[in-house]
Amino acid sequence: MKLDAEQLASIQRDGFLVLPDLFSSEEVAAMNAALAPLFAETSEANVREKKSGEVRTAMGLHLRNALFDRLCHHPRLVEPAQQILGHELYIQQVKVNVKAAFEGEAWQWHYDFATHHADDGVPQPLALNLHIFLADVTEFNGPLWFIKGSHRHGAQPTFHDTVSTSYPLWVVDRDVVADLVGKGGMVSATGKAGTGLIFHDTLLHCSPPNLSPHDRPIFSLILNPVSNRQTKLARPEYKHHTDFTPVTALTDDCLLQ
Ligand code: SIN
Ligand code: MN
């Protein structure tokens, strides 16, 4: 699947691109069916919410389940990323951020490169985060908020937050957030189940807690150029994969075979 010129210009300008109806309801149902047993596993790759113990993020999914392995090779994810970054990309991180009904806690203001640079030694902010909504994402169930165009201001100063949530993250100061919101404004990424979303490594984002009765599972695949691979191998495999083989696209029907 190829992005058109307008889509490429919009991701360049805004730092993100929403792709409605990227996956069918049948494909999303297959992904959700595969998730339930994964969430039930006792695994350190299932990171749990601080307060409730609900799964916050289930990581390393392509190593734990064949359908998620195929999803990481799906042409509707891999080909747009290759169009933007070139062909030699490896699978950096694979997860579902669950944001459980009533219990899903916030993700603090951050940009992904800060953590992958500080903790994994990724040299440059080139990676792309490719999302699929596995349920309808609305104003109520904790959608991602982006600061439009913030990726164009580059890497901002960060500090390591090990306190606010169960997932340690390099986060951005409030004054930087306020400044960049003043420049670009905020937008929330909502859409029906099956919606796709692509965003840049230095785009500032966060998400509020989910106080609604609806779960908000979102699949996330981060692809990074092999030439920009991590230089520190300190974190566990499920947080940054060490197989730097370039990812190749399967056929478009690979999920339902
Ligand atoms: C993230 O930024 O990695 C997670 C945000 C979310 O799932 O709400
Ligand atoms: Mn993030």
Topology:
Elements: H1 5-14, E1 16-19, H2 25-40, E2 46-48, E3 55-59, H3 61-64, H4 66-71, H5 75-85, E4 89-97, E5 107-110, H6 112-118, E6 128-133, E7 144-147, E8 158-161, E9 169-172, H7 174-184, E10 186-189, E11 196-200, E12 205-207, E13 218-225
Antiparallel strand pairs: 1-11, 2-3, 3-4, 4-13, 5-12, 6-11, 6-13, 7-10, 7-12, 8-9
Manganese (II) ion binds at residues 110, 112, 205.
Structural write-up:
There is one protein chain. With 257 residues, the protein is an alpha+beta fold. It has a single domain (13-227), classed as q2cbj1_9rhob like domain (Jelly Rolls), CATH 2.60.120. It has helices spanning 5-14, 25-40, 61-64, 66-71, 75-85, 112-118, 174-184; strands at 16-19, 46-48, 55-59, 89-97, 107-110, 128-133, 144-147, 158-161, 169-172, 186-189, 196-200, 205-207, 218-225. A seven-stranded antiparallel beta sheet has the order 1-11-6-13-4-3-2. A four-stranded antiparallel beta sheet has the order 5-12-7-10. A two-stranded antiparallel sheet has the order 8-9. The protein starts with a helix and ends in a 32-residue tail after the last strand. The mean pLDDT is 97. Bound molecules: succinic acid and manganese (II) ion. Manganese (II) ion is lined by residues 110, 112, 205.
